[in-house]
Design goal:
CATH architecture of the largest domain: 3-Layer(aba) Sandwich
Strand content: 5-15%
Largest sheet: 6 strands, mixed
Radius of gyration: 21 Å
Oligomer: single chain
Shape: globular
Number of domains: 2
Number of helices: 20
CATH class of the largest domain: Alpha Beta
CATH superfamily of the largest domain: Periplasmic binding protein-like II
Structural class: alpha/beta
Distance between the termini: 16 Å
CATH topology of the largest domain: D-Maltodextrin-Binding Protein, domain 2
Helix content: 40-55%
Length: 417
């Protein structure tokens, strides 16, 4: 999934983290060997504070069952060069035990790196996962008849976060259609409140565009085009671009164009009452909860007005490379990732939904329960599509408003099937 921050941004924001007990990597491997502790090396981009807490909760569950297996996140040691270090290790035949990858990028990785990963189809069968994990998610990590990664979470990307106090103070109903959303934006603007918070990073604008496009095109037409089933409808895409232009011109914060303004800053506008709504992935819910705002009380999250029947999502997963030093211990960690206990512990803090369909919704806060219900009841569940050339074009459009240029990029770079 596009990440809440870019990998470089996350790594720059990272703070020291003791993963599975304080470890300084290879320096204490000898001591661990003497004590019978196995070090399992993981590359995960969840090292910013709010994400690290979710990963730590997952590892804490693992440690209860496997106290002699210590999970060490090598991405911390590598800093901003973590991706380069991972790529170099894979190329040299010295892989870590596990690494994090988005479901959307998995197919490209397999094509570029054949015979690099251990297939997990037998693992899924042995642990009864085929019957409990969201079927679309299993399909997302299946290529050439084999399952290649263990999904960790489902983040909804077409989510509307809103400040409940602002809506209550202005006696506003939560919009459920696109016309209602635009009318609500007009009312908020008249009241001196920023209707929609955002930032001009290309991937953030793409998420906003996807929400607006699904509402204007309709979920079925959006799904058909963005999964490559049908050719582009220039009229429909032009209408979505016009809508994005209208929103960026009239309803978003002026600070969005600042180079250092991130999605967390947009979320903070919601938190401090300067903005009323934020169309973004529900990792923003995890962030807002982490900083102390109570979901269902201070703020809430609903599906995109006009496209609530569509659950547009991203999935992060862990892949198991061939030749890792601790293959059995690595599979033990995948067992924890797949378990109900691990899913609950991680997703409670991450703000995402579980990949398992057999977990009771009452394990989560009210907003999490509502999102989980939307996932299970959605008419269309769809893995989000992304391309770097799209993100570059959306970033350029946010400043230039060159509709023809954006349309040209979307025409010349259609979604992959």
């Amino acid at each position: 999934m596009p990440r809440p921050l870019s990998r470089r941004q996350v790594l720059q924001l990272a703070v020291p983290l003791c993963v599975g007990g304080c470890s300084n990597g290879n320096s204490d491997s000898a001591a661990q060997a003497q004590s019978g502790v196995e070090q399992v090396t993981l590359f995960s981009w969840w090292i910013a504070p709010s994400e690290a807490d979710a990963l730590q909760a997952l590892i804490a569950v693992h440690n209860e069952k496997y106290p002699k297996e210590r999970i060490y996140n090598a991405a911390l040691e590598s800093g901003v060069k973590a991706q380069e270090a991972l790529d170099a290790n894979l190329a040299a035949g010295t892989p870590p035990d596990l690494f994090q990858e988005s479901a959307y990028n998995l197919g490209g990785f397999l094509a570029a790196n054949p015979a690099t990963l251990v297939p997990l189809s037998d693992f899924f069968s042995a642990h009864g996962l085929l019957d409990v994990i969201v079927p679309e998610v299993i399909a997302d990590v299946t290529f050439n008849g084999e399952i290649w990664a263990m999904p960790v979470n489902i983040h909804r990307e077409n989510a509307l976060h809103y400040n409940k106090k602002i809506f209550a103070d202005l006696s506003l109903a939560v919009p459920t259609t696109l016309p209602e959303l635009l009318a609500t934006c007009d009312q908020l603007k008249a009241a001196g409140i920023i209707p929609l918070a955002t930032a001009y990073d290309g991937w953030i604008i793409r998420i906003l565009f996807n929400g607006l496009a699904a509402a204007s095109m309709g979920p079925a037409a959006f799904e058909s085009y963005f999964t490559g089933k049908t050719a582009i409808d220039e009229g429909a895409i032009n209408q979505a671009i016009d809508l994005l232009d209208n929103v960026l011109t009239n309803y978003v914060n002026a600070s969005a164009n600042q180079p250092t303004f991130l999605w967390t800053d947009a979320a903070n506008l919601l938190l401090n009452g300067q903005a009323a709504m934020f169309i973004h992935g529900d990792w923003a819910k995890g962030y807002l909860t982490q900083v102390g705002w109570k979901p269902g009380v201070g703020f809430d999250v609903v599906g995109m007005p006009g496209a609530a029947d569509l659950f547009l999502y991203g999935v992060d997963s862990f892949a198991l490379p061939n030749g890792g030093p601790q293959p059995e211990a690595a599979k033990h960690f995948l067992e924890t990732v797949a378990s109900a206990e691990g899913q609950i512990a991680f997703n409670k803090l991450k703000g995402s939904s579980t990949v398992r369909l057999d977990i009771s919704p009452d394990q989560f806060d009210p907003a999490g329960q509502a999102t989980l219900a939307d996932l299970r009841n959605a008419k269309i569940r769809m893995l989000t599509r992304s391309k770097s050339v799209w993100d570059d074009a959306f970033h350029a459009f946010a400043s230039s408003r060159d509709k023809a240029a954006l349309l040209s990029v979307l025409i010349d770079n259609p979604p992959d099937k």
